[in-house]
Amino acid sequence: MLRTTESLGRVRVAFTDRHGGVTTGPQGSLDLGRTDADPASARENFDRVRRRLGLRRVVAMHQVHGPDVHLVTPDDAAAWPEQGHLGDSVPGQARLPVVDALVAPDLSAVGPVALCVRVADCLPVLLADPVTGAVGAVHAGRVGLLAGVLPAAAAALRALGAGALTAWIGPHVCAACYEVPATMQVEAVAALPALAAETSWGTPSLDLGAAAAAQLTAEGVAVRRVGGCTRTDPDLHSHRRDGARSGRLAGLVWVT
Ligand SMILES: [Zn+2]
């Protein structure tokens, strides 16, 4: 169920793997995506993760590969439905914020509330300042990195008073696996040089993790890279490997 868990002061982070859920088929078994074929399975999968981690609420987002950041206030978190992470796939539930980054001040007074990012090859990036209790969850693929979603999230956390920020870059498709057309590589590397890489079979690729680390380091953020490569690890969900029906893993960050 859990690929990686780490603590830093009051901050807890977790990245899930693909095991321990109830979804059948290529998305199985622990699919935490909004697009799980069966809403009941999606609900049960998330409930299992919440129980395991002791989380009451999980604030998620409708990710669109953009640079926008949504602020989750303590009032928002207190009003967030206990199944709100499922979004409007469940009748009567609130719509998810349409963004690729969530940030929040210290939510510990509202109970254990996590911010959540969902991925299958893109980067799940969790951010936190254990002193102020400010946290962030970011979805960063090639498009989001180039759009600047990570510096935007770091700036939003600084605006909340965060000082020494740490980022956890979770499981994603590695540079040795992430082949792209040569023209795409040239354009991307011109904008973000740290993206330059080559696959294990000698063709142009992009190093999303290195580029994210470079962007975060430039923002004064300490970076931890955890979790491995989604495409080559059968214990993780991968869109590149499993296609349009691949499941999603989640990155979760909260303050105790
Ligand atoms: Zn790989």
Kindly name the structural category: alpha+beta
CATH class reads: Alpha Beta
Main sheet, how many strands, which sense, barrel?
A: 6 strands, mixed
Q: List the ions, cofactors and other small molecules found in this model.
A: zinc ion
- Strand order across the largest sheet: 4-5-8-7-9-12
Beta-strand fraction estimate: 25-35%
Task: Please tally the helical runs, counting DSSP H or I stretches of 4 or more residues.
Answer: 7
Helices and strands, in order, run as EEHEEHEEEEHHEHEEHEHE
If you compute it from the alpha carbons, what radius of gyration comes out, rounded to the nearest whole angstrom? 17 Å
Summarize the amount of helix as a percent range: 10-25%
Q: What is the CATH T-level topology?
A: CNF1/YfiH-like putative cysteine hydrolases
Shape: globular
CATH architecture: 4-Layer Sandwich
Q: How much is the average pLDDT?
A: 95
Q: How far apart are the first and last residues' alpha carbons, in Å?
A: 21 Å
Instruction: Say how many strands there are.
Output: 13
Give the CATH superfamily: CNF1/YfiH-like putative cysteine hydrolases
- Unreliable stretches (pLDDT < 50, length at least 5) are none
Total number of domains = 1
